[in-house]
Design goal:
The chain is mainly β and 1020 residues long. The chain is built from 7 helices and 61 strands. It has a 22-stranded antiparallel barrel. The longest helix has 15 residues.
Amino acid sequence: MKDLVRVFLILFFVFSLVAISFAQGRQTGTLYGLVVDEEANPLPGATVTLTGTGLMGQRTYITTEGGRFRFPALSPGEYEIRVEMPGFKTVIRKGLILRVGQTTEIKIEMTMSTIEEEVEVIAESPVVDVKSSKASINYSADFIASIPMNRDLYDIQNSIPGAIADGAEYRRTSSILGGTVRSALYALDGVPMNDPATFYSMANINVDVYEEIEFGVGSLPAEVGQTDSAYINIVTKSGGNKFTGGFTGYYTSDALAENLIALEDIQALNVFEPEKYTAYYDGSFNFGGPILVDRVWFFLNGRRLVWDRENPYTPENRMAKVGIASEHYDLRHEEWMGFAKLTFQVTNAIKYMGMLHYNHIYEPYYSNGIGSAYPTDVVDIWNHENTYTTTHQLNWVINQNTFVDARGTYIHRYFPLNHRPGTEGQYTYYDRTARVYWGRLFYDDEYIRKKMLASASITHFQDDFLGASHEMKAGFEFEQSEYHRDWYRENPWYSYWRNYADGNPYYYSTSGKRGRLRIRYCPPAKGMWDVQDHVRRFSGFVQDSVDTGRLAINLGLRLDYSYQYEPEQHRPELRYDYPAPLQNPALGTNELLEALIDQWHQDIGPISPFDALTTPYKKVVEFLTLSPRIGIVYDVFGDGKTAFKASFARYYEPVWSAKYNAAQIFGAGSISYYWYDLNGNKLMDLPGTDRYRVTSYPKQDPEYTYYVDDLKAPYMHEFLTGIEHELVRDFKLGLQFVYKINKNIVEDTDLNNGYDPEATDEKGLIWLPYTFTEPGYDSIYGTSDDQTLTVYGLREDRPTPTWMGLNPPEAKRKYWALILTFDKRMSNKWQLKGSILYSEFKGNAQPSYGSTEGESGLFDNPNTMINSYGRVSFDRPLQIRLMGTVILPYDFILSAYFQHRSGSPWTRTISRVYFPSDMPVQQSYVGVNAEPLGSRRNAPYTNLDLRVEKSFRLGDVGKLNFYVDIFNLGGRSGVSIYQNPNPYIWPYRTPPEVELDELYGTISSVYGVRSVRLGVRFTF
């Protein structure tokens, strides 16, 4: 009965403090130990004193009745312990290395003595965590600085097991161990850095401020939410009791790069040269130290990054076909990064930390907006983005067994994409023959994204309770994220041409005199509206790490309540100072637009996208989720060197506003019309003289709801088991098996017609089947690879689609992997990290950037479901990564980074299967997968990068290192070929006709550059 009362009191104590408590994963480690005598009997009352590089002053702990001691919330670094007790020799143990998010356990044996005596022990520092079931990989700042890779978080995260990059460098997103590219959570000193709209990292987090990175990739504790794959936990430098600092410089140019395919061969293939930097300048400066020793520390960093690249595209060649001269442009990126951190030991029990991180980016030509169809005048300017991140934390040690953390955070990102000066008022032209745009950027787009968090946590240690020791933790977090958008364009019109050079404006049909009219429905100037999508979240968790000796049990439960909402918003009446393109000059400037608005009112509804409109507050989606976590750890031999681990966790996908804003009436879009030039004068006249039929338009009902009422949050179930073993001193081997299944995936579908090929209404089948023979990969009928497929057409009398977001029960992703990891930290002049992974990643819902918006088209109709399940785009069955360093005589250092992975999967498709003209369906053709998803695979990727470094010690001044990085030392090169025939097929003709994709069999690009980069690093 007493035990039950005690449980109730402890739980009441924990929950009573939840209202002021937080955590989002720890930025510290824990030192846990046992003090015993020579006969292994625990020694209560011993005084344990801790000092170290990450600690202001010292901490003391009086061992418990069971002889235990613990020091939580320690910054990563090297520590020393002193254990004293009357009648025993004083023990000093040095060289204890603590890592972020890990528990280091040691045992101190004391020898009886009649005189005061000290024994100094330099023992090995444990590398196996026998208290936590979490799977993680840790990189120290020294390790990151030693390996030849780009000085960017993107390359660093892609070096961990199971990480596959999505290829968009500016987003820095990867699929990690079966997650989507938007499922990783980035944290900077505990601050969740994910963009509230897109959920990739809000800022380029500067590598020069890292003290350590912990990649939590499995069995995440309940304190970590807002991710269903990986927790990327970045802990920054804080300074110390000594002044330290230095600078780093990094440089390359095209003179230091070699094309591995001869220029004459590249020209003969009629492709662009492989991408490389023409110039790259990277300079960084650090300085930190004490303002007051053991009381106030500071750390400062500034970094400047500038690079130039050749534009691989030549849109000016397409412009020449139109008869318009256009200059070639190349790419430039300019970035400033700044960081400041202050740590203040206010009292012996209270510690404060404040941090500011700053990013500034400018690109005269937005590198994500280039292409063969985009000459200089239609490419955005990435116009001086600014991102500010600040967090402030208090740590209060109530007693040696209880402490509280509290934090406040604010992030502000201003992200403007603007038109080029001098193009104001221009139309955006498009020529179908030359396939090129020109005139003006599609629209100016300026974003403000904000994230505000208030949070805290309480941790309490309780020994000998219910037969075990407990580390209990509870927390609460509040987040308000805001997504503001201002998109505008002074001239809203597009001008589409079939052949501009020949003066043919009939984009769709010359004989039918049918052209295209397109208009953006946005204000003509900046600041006329504020389009908003916001997210609010309340989270709480409880967890308990139960230690019974050799067995540890990690229990946790997380509660999240999140919702996305639109506040009241307003759109003014939209009119413009520019007429439609080719508008009859006899008409007034807005006369055609107003006629089209009247037509809208008659045919579609009472509110057009150009009418003034105020929308009320609206809650878009709302989720209440419970995430259980359970893990076990067993110290197999009782020596702390071998741990068996197993766990189960449920993770929920967080709410990010760009995923759930499909019903945003004021979101960026346009209206397109078929223009029928009935009088053939090549001018756009009023309806009645000409005819206009709308082909796409946005809903304008303020009460419009896109998602079903019972929409559920997507979740991931994770099962993980494995074993970790200290093979030799400082060298850990791990073998893990992980299985994940992702369900409740959100996708859109047609509520009117669905995607079930067997669905019926009162008239029979909704989707009419059409069975045909396709000629297989060889595209020749009558050979062994011919196959029969059935596709479906929507019956001609069925209603047009109405799209709605829901959880299709068939949508899923599954992942499993067997992972061998090895981690040898730097000692005896060498280090090694790496992994060998074999895996399978299958599903029908792609984990890619676009697909995770929930509008991929997967459930649009029965045809999209045919052969839709298989290996997804990030499936790479075999992955090998090796990174290591060896220190040679005379302070020469050699480091290498080797990568090998299977090639990316691809699927043979049929672009168009034409229906017979007498088939009563709405479409004239459909597309379909000709084989299960991911049935084929591209060439594997193998690469070796090398660094040669020389270190010079400058007496007491510091150390100077020069290094040379050689990327692609092994000479990887080759050509990329369009391998998919992707044909048009007319099966009903006699004989059946097949027209292959015009790109099939052509070489699309070449790859293969060996480059050298020069670096210098000075530290003191």
